[in-house]
């Protein structure tokens, strides 16, 4: 079920504070919030999103705006069977 329009997108407060504090786009910002929505203000920033075992490197582009961080950090490995 989607979030209602009048509430707006969900973003953790600590994530907004990290973006405002970190003006350089060259450093990675470590986050654990997979449920936060990617805003247009995040374009160009580099994030390390925790997937439960390790951090996945993500650089935000224009196509990612409106999606959640969890969509870009997979939690399961793909099984490859030997033949």
Automatic annotation (TrEMBL):
Under Gene3D superfamilies, the record lists:
30s Ribosomal Protein S19, Chain A
* Pfam entry (one): Ribosomal_S19
Membrane-spanning intervals of the chain: none
- Gene Ontology terms describing biological process: ribosomal small subunit assembly; translation
Single GO MF annotation: RNA binding
Protein keywords? Mitochondrion, Ribonucleoprotein, Ribosomal protein
Q: Which residues form a coiled coil?
A: none
Q: Which HAMAP family match?
A: Ribosomal_uS19 (MF_00531)
Family per record: Belongs to the universal ribosomal protein uS19 family.
Q: In its UniProt entry, what is this protein called?
A: Small ribosomal subunit protein uS19m
Q: Which organism is it from?
A: Palpitomonas bilix
What's the gene? rps19
